[in-house]
Specification:
The chain contains 4 helices and 19 strands. The chain is mainly beta. The longest helix is centred in the N-terminal third of the chain and has 7 residues.
Amino acid sequence: KLPELSFMLQHRVSFNLPGDSLSVEQIKIDLAKISLEIKGVVRDLKTTPQADLVLNSKDISIQDLLSSIPADKNSPLSQLKGVGKMRVTASLRGELKGKTLPAFKGQVALKDVRIDFARVPQPFILPSGQIDFDNQGLSVITQDAKLGDTPLELKAVIDNYSDPNLTSELKTKFDLAIVKEVQKLPEGTNLSGSVDIDAKAFGKLKKVDQLDLSGNFNLRNVEISSPNLTVPVKNLNSDISLSKGVLNIDNLSLSLGKSSLSLNGKVENLVQSLIPVKGAPKKPFLSFKLNSPFVDLDEIMPVEQKVKPKEKQQVKTAPPFPDIDASG
């Protein structure tokens, strides 16, 4: 069911025949509870019209904006709730001729925004942010944004609308315990620790498989326990970096019960295996150097004992390896 929308257009314009111009004293557009106002002048009407127009909005309620967007009840948009304010300003100056738009630029300013999504227990909070746009492209900047208590810093620029080019950067640090609240994990699985992310993406949006992805991902004090693991993973730390499609794993260390190990390595073809491309996807290839002062294989990979049918019970086994080629 579509939301009920009201539309109202009011205008006060006047022609100046001797001056060959059109004065726009006010064009007011009301769509539901969103109000826009245009003022300015259009000159040289008989030859090549020259526009000098300014658009402003009153404060737009995020709640009103979301309720005005048509959405099916099963759509993710229908599960969004929000508060906060948004204001739009824009200008349009130049020739009104042919299919080419005159020079325009503007800004969408966001303030005290909070978005709640039914599937995510933590709200998205944005004290202030802005979207700047013009004929060439747009940029998005968030300031002090958070997902719950997790800080998020996002900067993105898209230029050339006909063949969009993306330049973006994301910085965040979050507690891995939040994963369980967002993504359903196997029953009995516990995850803790933290990860620092500083990631970048560059390239043409029409060629997603050719995007240049890079970044640093630092794991600190990660612990994983699950019925699928014979012993819990503890004290997992590593400095991971992504560059030119290669995932470099530096100084990875962890403990498995009585055992401990350290690893340095790299995974090639990882990005190509995750992003859909034409033809058969490339299989990731892991190469590594492993060092361990002590490994208790009986504890990590216990031999499954045969039991009588009446005594059958679930026996813990090591989780299967992913579909990946490796050497080490």
